[in-house]
Structure prediction request, 462 residues.
Amino acid sequence: MENKKICGVILAAGLGKRMNSSLPKVLHKILSKPMVCYALDCLSKISDIEKTVVVISHHTEKVKDIIKSNSVEFAYQEKPLGTADALKSALSVIKDSYDLILVVTGDTPLIKSKTLESVIDFHLQNKNSLTVVTFDASIPGAYGRIVRVNDEISQIVELSDASEDIKKITEVNSGFYVISSSVLPLIEKIKANDKNGEFYLTDIVELSIKEGFKTAAFKAADEKEFFGINSRQELLAAQKVLQREIAEHWLNNGVTILDTESVFISPEVTIGKDTFIYPNVVLEGNTHIGANCTIYPGSRLLNVALEDDVVIKDSTVIDASKILTGSVIGPFAHIRPGSTIGPKGKIGNFVEVKNSTIGYNSKASHLTYIGDSELGKDINIGAGTITCNYDGKNKHKTVIKDGVFVGSGTQLVAPVTINKNAVIAAGSTITKDVPEDALAVARTKQQHIDNWTLIKQRTKKD
Ligand code: UD1
Ligand code: CA
Prediction:
């Protein structure tokens, strides 16, 4: 590719009325990633693009909170007056001069950077001033129709303005354009549409041809990359495509997925070889799974790092935590943010862990809460143990050193430290630090009232 200065523009200020939602359309998620981030990530992979401007409006202001990147700038479109007006707002914040502007829509999450690179190449090689990306649509629906004269693009007609003949055209506008800086002033000449007062960027085609600029269509081979999402039905359809693409990628990379229809894997997720994924598993965000792991049905992992040989048993939720080699988690476990478990840790059923470290070969197998705690190695936590970490105002820490045995039904009232190899008797409420190698018993002594049952029966009869 010739070395040209390119600026990307993502149009993302539209209301997205057809979504019927209070959330801006471009923030609706596909496989847990907001739609607009697909376009952004795609542009960020194209090395010739120096900067990207995202056009937002007060309706889509929340986009700003989602996108945190130094190479992105935001432009405000005061009112969503149409795609041409949106591009105009972008140009007002682009201070440096660029040779080319690549315009993409924020509602096309299936787009691939390789395709856009070919579009830029096509534009440069043919010395075009304006390139419109088009495709043959199996369902042309509401896409703008491409009118050709002598094989060359001459006009884009929006559906609402199309005659019956034009409606029959199957080549449509993708909403993606490469525009050379010389053509940009023509935006000022675009007139409002008679029907709705909107300024259509599509009108730039006719103006550019009229002014003698070399204007051409790049017909893309794969229509699904340009699938524009306007409704929740279309969102679902796009998700299905992406879900299958991602699952197939991992199948081809040595991962077993038993049911690609019910497993949801976000684009950023990575999975090691010989990992086995059962149905109804959701892997979200920056989740990285090692080799030879097994994830049983119904589990959801969000921003989780799993080392090799980890087993996640059924219906387990793990959020922003690390599970180290050889650990077994679940079934029905809840690992909350900031936790590290293992190597060879075991967290069993109905155990909740929050912001805690559980060291090598330590186990909490049943019905337990471990919060704000630091556990060493070779520890056994008995069933029904609770770290009482919260006093109503502040959180406090529990420290359990190597080799400790905590008997069932224990409460550890933090802040508290249980030193090495100590044993806590079942049913204890521990409020003081326990010395190394000690047995701590903190429960009322058992008493017997002789013949109590017989006495009770006698008093009933009286
Ligand atoms: C647009 C094109 C149509 C093309 C289709 C491809 C126009 C007039 N029509 O139609 O030819 O086939 O895309 O998907 O351009 N936006 C703004 N500000 C606005 C209006 C829209 O930023 O004032 C943004 C939207 O957020 C969206 C994109 O521009 O990301 C496209 O807008 P949308 O309303 O979806 O256009 P379409 O009707 O799909
Ligand atoms: Ca659209």
User: Anything to note?
Assistant: Residues 105, 107, 228, 230 surround calcium ion (ligand 2) (CB under 6 Å).
